[in-house]
Amino acid sequence: MGRGDKKTKRGKISKGSYGVSRPKRSAVAAAPPTKKKKAKAKK
Fold first, then answer.
1. C or N terminus of the chain, fewer CB within 10 Å?
2. 3-state secondary structure the chain
3. What is this structure's pTM?
4. What angle do CA 39, 40, 43 make, to 5 degrees?
5. Which residues touch 13 (CB under 8 Å, ≥6 apart)?
């Protein structure tokens, strides 16, 4: 279990592949930011 093992994070780094143990991006970072509406000033 280490650099040669494809199922571990360290093995995926050495092979240069991605998967469950080494995802490309997290789900939170991939989500687009939501736009906030500005409240209109009351006169």
1. C
2. CCCCCCCCHHHHHHHCCCCCCCCCCCHHHHCCCCCCCCCCCCC
3. 0.46
4. 140
5. 22
